[in-house]
Amino acid sequence: QVQLVESGGGLVQPGGSLRLSCTASGSGISINTMGWYRQHPGKQREAVADITSGGSTWYADSVKGRFTISRDNAKSTVYLQMNSLKPEETAVYYCFANIQRVVTRRDYWGQGTQVTVSS
After folding, report:
1. What is the pLDDT of residue 109?
2. Cβ–Cβ under 8 Å, residues 113 and 7
3. CA nearest to 63, candidates 102, 117, 25
């Protein structure tokens, strides 16, 4: 069974920083792209950033220059360093991983972690 476990959410003041982590586990898995989405109350989930197994990255325009995605392949972990956070970035943040297991390749999702940006 494949699991993604997130950590690092919480309450931060505007302009502050948080670092999210997400670790994938499961037997016989090969992890491709990993990344993060976020969902504001009452809105659709939106992509924030992703990173390939080779280290190529993509960012949403709204977070470029402030967020940094990275991964440790040995630990099957992806990180999202978020700096200069804004109140409108309050949302539930979800990690995802595209995982190959035996003959199946699909996206898996974490349970979500709340990020609240407020003074």
Report:
1. 97
2. yes
3. 117
